[in-house]
Amino acid sequence: MATPLYGRLIGPTHIKTLSLAAVVAIAFIYPAQAASGWAYPSGTASSLPTSASPARAETSLAAAWGKALAANPGLQAARHGAEASRGAVLQSQARPNPELAYSQEDTRSSSRSSTVQLNQLVELGGKREARIQVAERERDVANSTVLETRVALRFQLVSQFNELLLAQQRVEYAAKTHALAQQSADAAARRVEAGKVPPLEASRAQVAQANALLELNQARSNVLVAQQNLAALWGGQAAEVGVATGDFSAVAESPDFDDIDALLNSAPGIATARLALEQSRAASNLERSKRVQDLTVSLGVKRAKEVGRNQIVFGVSIPLPLFDSNEGNQLQALRKVDQAEQHLQDVRLQIQTQVFAARQQLLSSNSQVQLLRSQVVPTAQSAYELAVRGFSLGKFSFLDALDAQRTLFDSQRQLLEQLSASHKARAEIDRLLGTPNVDLAVTGI
C-alpha cells in the first residue's frame, strides 16, 4: 500500500515529536493543571452540577434587593441621618429657658438688700417659626437623601446582578467554545493519523483548545468576583450568592420622551436639589428675622433691711444693634439661595443630558442585539459548522475552520457585550429618573 504524501515527508518519529512538543507547550501554559493531571472537559458538563453534587444556592434579584435593604451600610447611614434630623426639628421647637438671678447690695446686715428675679428671653420677629422651618427643611433634605441613596443602591445592585448574569453566560459560552475546540482538535488528530494533513494542523488545534480552556477558567474566576461584588452590598460572602437566576437575554424597552418628562421633575437628584433650595430660603428668612432684637423681661422680689418689707422688681432689656446688625449673615444667606438656585438648574441639565445619552445607548444596544441575534450569530454558526464539516472531509484547511471559529466566538462576545450595555443603560435611566416605587423599577431582567 502506498504511503501517503505527508507520511513520506514526515515520518512517525516526527509526528510523535511534534505531538510531544504541543503537549509540552500546553503544560507550560497551564503548569498547575498539568501537574495535577487534568483532562480537558467536554461541553458544559464541567461547569454544571451533576446529580451527585450538592445543590447550589440560588439568588434572585428580589432576594438580593431584600438583603441589601436590610443590611447595606450606606443606606443605614442615610436612615440614621434622617432620624437625626427629626431630633433637630424637635429641638427647634423649644423656647428659651428662663434665667434665675440673685443679687445682693451691701454686706452689712443692717443695710443690705437681696434680690431674686427671673429673666425670660422673648423671641421677636418670628425667629422661632423661622428656626422650625429651617429644621423641617433639613429633615426633608435628609429624607430625600435616603430615597436618593436607595435609588443609587438599587442601581448598584442591578448592575452587579447583571454582571453576575453576564459572567455566568460567559462561562456557558466558554464551555461551548471549549467543546467546539475539543471537537476540532479530535478531528485534526484523526486526519493526522490518517496522513491527510501535517501534524502542524493538530498542533494548531491543540493550541486553540488550550486558549479556549484559558478563557473558560477566566470566565469561572469572573463569576466568583461578581458573586463577591454582589454580596458586598449587604456585607455577605460570595458563597451565599450562588447562582443568579434571571433572563440575561431579555432586553428592556426604551422609555419615550413623554414618560421622561413626567418623571424628570420627580427625579431623586432634582428633588434633593429643590429641597436644598427651600432649605437655603428658610435659612435666609431666619437670618432676616434676626434684624428684630429679642426682648428680655425680668420679674423678681427685693428684700431691703432698711425698709423692712419686700418690693416687686420688674425690668425690661433689649440689645441695641449699634455694632452688629447681622448684615454679613444676611448677605451670606442670600448668596447661598442664589447658589442653590443655580445648582438646581445645573442638576436638571446634567440629568437631562445623562438620560438622553443613556436612552440613545439603550436604543443602539437593543438594535445591535436584534441584528446579532437575527443575522450575525446564526450566520457565523452556520459558517463554522460548514468549515468544520469541510475540514473533516478534507475540503478545507484547518486555518479556514479556525478562522470560522474565531468569527463565531467574536460574534457571541459582541452579543453579550451589547446585552450588558443594554441592561446598564436601562439601569442608568432608572437611577437618574427614579420610579414611584423603587422596588418595581424596570431592569430588563
TrEMBL record:
Which InterPro entries does its entry note? MdtP/NodT-like, OMP_efflux
Region annotated Disordered sits at 81-118
- What's a Pfam family this protein contains? OEP
| PANTHER family per record | BLR4935 PROTEIN (PTHR30203:SF24), OUTER MEMBRANE CATION EFFLUX PROTEIN (PTHR30203)
Into which family does the record put it?
Belongs to the outer membrane factor (OMF) (TC 1.B.17) family.
Which protein are we looking at?
Cobalt-zinc-cadmium efflux system outer membrane protein
